[in-house]
Amino acid sequence: MMIIYLKVTLIDMVGNFKLLMILLYCLSCKNIETQKANIIKEAINENIGVLIENPQYFDIENKEDTVYLSKSIVRMNNYDEIKNIFSNRFNLHNNDLQPILLNLNVIPISDVNGYKVSLIEDTQYLDNKITFQFANAFINEDMNYFCIEVISQHGIGSKFMLYLFRKDKSKWLLVEKKLIAIG
Fold it and tell me: Which of 30, 77, 138, 177 has an alpha carbon within 20 to 30 A of 84's alpha carbon?
C-alpha cells in the first residue's frame, strides 16, 4: 500500500514539475514579447522625427497645422512582404519574425516641421486631415535590428514607406528607407 502511495505521489510531483516548467516557459515568452515591445517604443521615440518626416508632402495648399498619428501599431496585409524585405536586408532568415502589435501612449515631440502632432485612437475617419499610421513592426531575436512601415495619407492619397534600423551601441540608426507604395 505504501509503495503505491509513493508511486502516485511521485507521478503527481513529476506532473506538477512539468506544469511548472510549461508555466515558466510561457511567462518567459511573454517577458520577451514585452521586452520587444518596449524596445520598439524606444526606437520609435528616438526616431519619431524621421518616421513623421514630411507632412507637407500632402499639404499642397498649406491649410493644415496638425498631423494625426494613430496610437495603434497594426499588422497590415502586406506583412509577409515587409518581413521578407527586413529579413533579406539584415540576413535574418533563421529568425522567427512576427509583427509586434502595440499601442503608443505618448510621443516625445509635439510638432514636426511646423505641424502639431496629435496622438489619436483611430485615423480611419479623418478624411481631410494628414494622418500617419505605424504598421508591420518587426524586431529580430537579438533585438538589434528593427523595421516599421509608415502609412501617411491625406484624403484618398497615401504613401507607404518602410524604415529599417540597426542598433549601434545605445542608438537606433536609420539604415535604409524604402518606398513600398504610393497612391
Answer: 30
**Which CA distances in Å does 138 have to 9, 49, 144?**
46, 19, 11
Does residue 160 contact residue 147 with C-beta atoms inside 8 Å?
no
Is the entire prediction scored with pTM above 0.85?
no
Contact between 163 and 147 under an 8 Å Cβ cutoff? The reply is yes
Distances (CA, A) of 132 to 21, 54, 60: 42, 11, 17
DSSP 11-51: HHHHHHHHHHHHHHHHHHHHHHHHHHHHHHHHHHHHHHHHH
Q: Are 68 and 132 in contact (CB under 8 A)?
A: yes
Handedness of CA 78, 79, 85, 88 (dihedral sign): negative
Over residues 27-44, the pLDDT tens digits come to: 445 577 888 889 999 999
In one-letter notation, the amino acid at residue 76 is M
What phi-psi label fits residue 58: left (phi over 0), alpha (psi between -120 and 50 degrees) or beta?
Answer: alpha
